[in-house]
Design a protein that fits this description.
Length: 560
């Protein structure tokens, strides 16, 4: 069997003032890498929520990641190599070639500049400080499991008496534990010159990048703008809007309904075809946006999407505009042919879904995606006339899968059965009792095997099930087979390398077993089938930007 390829871990400093720089840095790595990578933004807010960072805010710190970059050993559980770069980088060279230089005798490897800034202030107005080993820590290849890095705990990083100078100068290490990398991997723009100093592999706009006013035409600006072109247009628009700091809709003296509609109008005044959306009346009297009616939204199943009590949902809004549809009211009492888009399975959404089934009404269901590239819920599955895509596998290219940083697992064996019961709302939707299902399922398993049965209820908190109590942690504990009703856990298990039994229509139905009687004669995951399933599902889930720009709509209706 093929060895499992672990993605290279790359942490990029994230600063709320420079999100566009982070997006370009991230995209540049994805554009040039030849191997799987896992890119993690070092967001101070997130690290505080997860009890990784609790230092008082340092008003002298030049970025939000001044200290957090030194948490890499903790964030990797003191295992393997990881790369940190500031957000103001652009990769021109394959990052795999950088990791190839990792030498286990060193705790940290970096470009060891002899650098003194020319200016007294930074591009964002912050005071420019000068100290030994300046800019060494802006790009670090960290040997997280090195014995000398064991002391670099979150407690140490968060100790107020531990200064920035102590950390940035690698004072916890001996000099011979700091390895040297070529400055080409941390090319200080404006400091190093071609061809005298070589050729840049990683650009570092340390004195000012093109995203700052007055630096738009700085050296190597072309490389920045070239990468920026590959970033979603909608992401760019969102970031530029953030930078302009407009008056927030919530501050307007309007009803909730009109606030929502004004926001929609302003966001979508001109579409990709430069067609101006018309209004029925003056803006102050705005009640709807006239568009080609193809689909209407149901917010958590509420009958009146636009009412004061109706829920505003950004994903429904995205789908409406991506489909060329309209926001509107649907009459659930009378049978009509209005196509609906419904998010989630809770509350009145169930009512809407059942009405669609009873009336044979076309609908689109939006929920959590099958495969997430990070703990963030970045992708959302959309299914036409169903809760999950249960169609036979469609042969798909690998372009969308490549963006997901998915590691396909080899087949794993064990002597335990992992039962993943569905949620109460799923059972309610299928008119079943959860306790009865559990009792009957366990009894049925015991008919066919003597293996130990482990029950894993879905953690109520998303942060728990994506960080500490993950499905992959459970699947790693000697599992012979996963049994579920129709949970996405079946898909996750199969891609991880553990056989699964899905007892109700499920995204993995076509590759998994569907009867407990087969528990000792399972469909064994193999790489070709796993890749085929993953590629198929990558075309069944979408980012918010892809939903809004019509990509999702076009893929979902490509055969229509």
């Amino acid at each position: 069997m093929n060895e499992e390829i672990k993605p290279l871990k790359i942490f990029i400093g994230w600063d709320s003032r420079e999100e566009i720089a982070y997006q370009v840095a991230r995209q540049s790595i994805l554009d040039t890498t030849s191997v799987p990578v896992e890119i993690i933004p070092l967001k101070q807010k997130t690290l505080r929520k997860t009890d990784m960072y609790w230092r008082d805010e340092d008003k002298l710190a030049s970025t939000e990641f001044t200290f957090t970059r030194f948490l890499l050993p903790e964030l990797t559980e003191f295992d393997g190599w990881a790369l940190f770069i500031d957000c103001d980088f652009v990769a021109l060279e394959d990052v795999a070639n950088l990791f190839a230089q990792a030498n286990d005798k060193y705790a940290v490897m970096c470009a060891q500049h002899d650098y003194t800034p020319k200016e007294g202030t930074k591009m964002d107005g912050q005071v420019q400080t000068v100290y030994p080993r300046k800019n060494w820590s802006s790009m670090m290849l960290v040997n997280c499991g090195h014995p000398s890095n064991i002391k670099l705990t979150k407690e140490l990083v968060n100790t107020e008496t531990i200064s920035g100078a102590y950390l940035h100068r690698f004072s916890w290490l001996l000099d011979n534990e700091v390895g040297k990398l070529s400055h080409e991997w941390n090319w200080l723009v404006g400091w190093y010159k071609e061809p005298k100093d070589g050729k840049p592999k990683f650009l570092h706009y340390t004195e000012g990048g093109p995203w700052f006013e007055k630096y738009e035409n700085c050296e190597y600006n072309y490389e920045y703008y070239k990468v920026k072109e590959n970033i979603s247009e909608l992401t760019i628009k969102r970031l530029e809007t953030q930078l302009s700091k407009p008056v927030e809709i919530k501050d307007l003296s309007l009803t909730p309904q009109k606030k929502m509609l004004v926001e929609l109008f302003l966001k979508n005044l001109i579409d990709s075809n430069e067609t101006v959306y018309k209004t029925k009346d003056k803006l102050k009297e705005l009640t709807e946006i006239e568009m080609g009616i193809k689909v209407a939204a149901v917010a958590d199943g509420r009958e009146d999407y636009n009412s004061k009590k109706g829920a505003y949902d950004p994903y429904l809004e995205d789908f409406i505009f991506g489909s060329g549809g309209s926001i509107g009211v649907w009459d659930y009492k009378n049978k009509d042919d209005t196509t609906l888009v419904i998010r989630g399975l809770g509350g009145k959404s169930q009512k809407a879904l059942k009405i669609c089934a009873d009336q044979n009404r076309e609908f689109y269901a939006i929920d959590t995606g099958y495969i997430q590239p990070s703990i963030k819920k970045e992708y959302h599955r959309i299914t036409k006339n169903g809760l999950q895509n249960t169609s036979p596998l469609i042969e798909r290219p690998g372009d969308r899968l490549e963006r997901l940083n998915l590691t396909i697992g080899n087949h794993k064996t064990g002597n335990k059965i992992l039962v993943c019961p569905p949620s109460e709302k799923v059972m309610k939707y299928y008119n079943q009792n959860l306790d009865d299902w559990m009792k009957n399922t366990i009894a049925e398993i015991k008919k066919y095997t003597n293996k130990e049965i482990i029950i894993r209820k879905k953690p109520s908190s998303r942060s728990d099930r994506t960080t500490d109590d993950t499905i992959y942690n459970a699947l790693s504990k000697g599992i012979h087979c996963l049994v579920t009703y129709n949970s996405i856990a079946a898909t996750e298990a199969f891609l991880f390398g553990v056989p699964a039994i899905a007892l109700a229509p499920n995204a993995a139905t076509s590759v998994c077993n569907n009867s407990i009687s087969q528990i000792e004669n399972l469909n064994i995951p193999n790489r070709d089938t796993q890749i085929a399933l993953a590629r198929h599902l990558s075309y069944c889930q979408f980012t918010s930007a892809e939903i809004r720009n019509g990509t999702a709509w076009n893929i979902l209706n490509e055969s229509s």
